[in-house]
Predict the structure.
Amino acid sequence: MMNNFRFGIRQKIITGYIVIIVCLIAAILAVTKQLDNMQKERNFIIQHDFAVRDLTSNIEKDLLKMESGQRGYIVTGDENYLQPYNEAREQWGKDFNALSKLLSDYPDQLKEITAINENIKEWIEVAGEPSIKLKQQNDTAGIRDFFQKDPGKTEIEQTLQQFDSFRNNEKELVQQRADNLNNQNQYLEIGLFSLLAFVILASIALAWIISGSIIKTIKAVVETIRAMTTGGNLSSRIHVKSNDEIRDLGFATNELLDSFEERDWLQRSVTEVVSKNQGISSLENLAEIFLSATAQITESSYGAFYIKEGKEKNVRFVKKGAFADTAGDVGRDSFALGQGLIGQCALEKRVQVINKIEGDYTLISSGLGETKPRSILIAPIVHEEEIIAVIELASLAEYTSQHLAFIEKVLETFGLTINRVIDRIEIARLLSESQAMTEELQAQSEELQTQSEELQMQSEELQMINEQLESRSQDAEEKSKALEIAKKELEEKAKQLETGSKYKSEFLANMSHELRTPLNSILILSEMLAENSSKSLSEEELEFARVIHSSGQDLLNLINDILDFSKVEAGKLEIMLSEVNLSEFPSSLERNFTHIADQKGLNFTINIAPDVPTILQTDEKRFQQIIKNLLSNAFKFTEKGSVSVRLNKVPADVTYAGIDYWLEVSIKDTGIGIPKEKHELIFQAFQQGDGATIRKYGGTGLGLSISSEFAKLLGGRLQLQSEEGKGSTFKLLIPSISDESVSVQTFAGASAEVATALEQSAKVIEDAPATAKIAPAVPETEQPIMVDQEKVFYGKTVLITDDDNRNIFALKTALEQKGMNVLNANNGMECLDVLETNKNIDLILMDIMMPEMDGYETMQRIRGLNEFTDLPIIALTAKAMKNDREKCLEAGASDYISKPLKLEQLFSVMHVWMTK
Amino acid sequence: MKDLIWNNDDSQETNITETIEMELLLEGLYRVSGFDFRQYMRSSIQRRVQNRMQIEQIQTITGVLEKVLHDPMFMNKLLNDFSINVTEMFRNPEFFKVFREKVIPELKELPEIRIWHAGCATGEEVYSMAILMEEEGLIHKAKLYATDMNETVLNKARSGILPLSKMRTYTKNYMSSGGTRAFSEYYTTDGHFAYLKPSLLKQISFAQHNLVTDQSFNEFHVILCRNVLIYFTTALQNQVYELFYESLSTKGFLGLGDKESIKFAECADQYEEFAELVKIYRKK
Ligand SMILES: C[S@@+](CC[C@H](N)C(=O)[O-])C[C@H]1O[C@@H](n2cnc3c(N)ncnc32)[C@H](O)[C@@H]1O
């Protein structure tokens, strides 16, 4: 009941006012009553007093009137004087009665006036009446007597006196009464002010109390609202204890907050889900993320996500993601439109919440299968008026309207999101398809290029074969005849050769021997000369002597080599097997080579592997010779680094009759190395035509061939591993022969086997000379190449444009040697002039820094002429600055080389630009 | 085109047969030679086989298989057919330009720079890299590995011999790749060929390596595999990308061919696009 009692703000204020008004009325009534009393009192004072005074003075006047009338009459005897006397005698009684009536309440005064009354009556009896009677009787004596005696005089005087005192008394009395009234007035004033003060206080107090009760609640509300806005906490609510409009306000605010919070939740939930959906590129991913987010927000335990696939009649919704707070697969894999609850929903395009789930809610009726949740929510996802997906959620609690609102809201834009992902997937697919197509195109174009190259090659081959065939068919007959003859000739020749080469070798052997004798004397003599014991030779002559000596030494070596070689060739060399003590091997090598090593500052090491036996059965002399040969070669071509010798026993997988073991001697240097294509070459004697090669790699040219031959003689082989610039390793592989009776020739095959076995085990990839495929090509091409080189240049015309005549001269000489026609121009203008008259120029060498017209401009001008757009121009730049080169290219140079010119480079470039 | 549209049952059948034949051929080839072309682009393989069939006058793919199984020479020919060796020095010069300008600064500070050219063909690409390294003053610490599955082209590559007729193109490529010297400094010539300077050649290790069947053999700072993956199916490409990923150091570079892209590969997000225009990617 109390709760229902409303004490609103209006009531509060009205109550306050009423209290004050009541107070005021009470005060006013009290004051008026008081005032009334005072008024009466005052009136009484005024009327009573006036009446008393009037009456008193009337009586006095009457008395005097009577006296004067009496006297007048007596004196004159005129009757007229008697009239006022009579009137007054009649009048004063009346007045006296009125006065005594007035004063009936005041005995003191009554007494006084009674006394006055007695006196007046006295006078009348004593003086008045008798005197008149005397007159009337004309009793003059009586009258004189009367005057003499003058009775009544005392009475009059007494009466007048009495009147005075009465009046004084009366005055005092009035004064007293006025004072009394004054006092009363003062009290009233005091009462009035105190009443006023009370009312003021009461109103203030009331105002305070009422406003306080209003403000307090408002403040509480404001406080709560402020806390919410600053703290952002929407969950706190306003509590109002009073039962008034403020409470209403609080309730209304709380309601507002409730709806606000709800909307905020919705907004936040939607934003959360939407933001999670951003930047996802696969549907599965999207489904997974979306489901887990929505499930969490709607407090669902299960969820499944289906995407529409297929068109028209074949539409199926396929599961792309599922969510379950328990492990396991949830929902069916797919369903068709209208199939089961979920299919129905997809058909109807609206969100459905099923709270009453039938007992037989099974697999068919829902995508979620056998679980029995309290509530199921099925929602279609629409994009452009078409369902593109369906989600199904199931909860163990019921879905609230808020959940529904959330689902509806979030699905509004989700269709677009799905569509975007689908689009993105499609775009990615198209892009990758186009990438695949691009690659395919590239592959095709490369294939085409290969094919066209193949075709080119084939057609060239065909052409060649055709040509050959043509000439062959012509020659065929001739040839077959010639062949016959040749065959016979060959047979004969073969015989001749056999004996011939034998003779040649024998001759050589003898000759060499014959040559050595005189040479020896030359050597000795020149040595003596060089020692200059007689001190008679000049420096120059001494140098000559030394040259003679060293040349002689070389010659001798050569002759020795030739001798050895011819012996080998002639089969004259015998092997003498003996035991070689390998432990002495290092010291003998050191004796011979340390001084050269020291001289050249090279490291020289000899290593013998621990498993190498001390005894090697072979021809010691030849063995030593091979090693020395190889070593002197190594030292000759090594300028810095090291030369090392290493002895290894070859692990024997295979055994051969008559062979104890195989020894591998590696001689390794860090010298200039030998390019692959020359590997075979350096082992061949006499056959190679390129003297330079011999000079460069072979020493006397025979050392290696001899060593190789010796190695073969000893049943072994000599191999080379080398690359240009990386040094070389010569490997001598020889057997220790235990059985002299076995022919060494039979070891040849064995050594090949051992060598390949070795190679494989060591995984040495380098081409061994014996297996080099390109080997036969080298000696053949070596010669013709020179001719070809000339061919490219021969008869061609070059225009040199340079203002430096020394350059022109140097170039001219070099180019003319190649059989070229050389024209020259001293500057750009001249160059253009020359071009005008000579249309058959094949190449221009263009200096850049020239007076008048520099190289850049000249080239630009040349390129400006239609006929010379393809003419090779090689710019010669003094400094190879990047800027320079770019300018050259812009100006139209085909290529550039920097000065000072290297002839080889120049020819290389000319090759490139002049071969068709 | 018409054939495709008017695909009657007959041709469909032959197509199926051909598919089977082709699978058998590749399987057979794999079993006898160890070279696995089963995951190569069928279209490309198809054309190569067709080409061979035409040259050799063989009627069916099964006929090709028969020869593959019984005639080693023929098998080698077919293997050679399958390896397309088109290449150039400074091919797509822009690639080398960007490499020089953007990648080199990233490598300069390394104590040793290992570069792998996977599918180097006849070596022109690795020669170009050697020249670039030489010009950047890095050749002394650069280790260039060039591999290919085809031993024949590797041998050509090892020789450093270039056809003279191609040198003009190479010169142009060299220049537009931002070469800082004269191209002629790197070769000598005779009437037939140009010879790469041996000092460059010796910086390169050539080895046989099959991207399909062989494993990673080192960790590299740069891997170039240009115009090789175009012959592979996506699945095989992904497999090879995996191999490259294993073989790259962190922040290592992967260079692909002009028409190739890693964008659609599985491993795309393991790389950042370093210079997408010239297909240089960087391992994250
Ligand atoms: C077109 S060339 C590319 C040459 C060079 N990278 C370029 O872009 O100039 C392709 C090369 O890849 C090689 N190749 C093809 N499949 C291979 C594989 N599975 N393993 C290694 N190399 C392969 C081929 O032998 C061929 O030499």
Observations:
- The two ends of chain A are 121 Å apart (CA to CA).
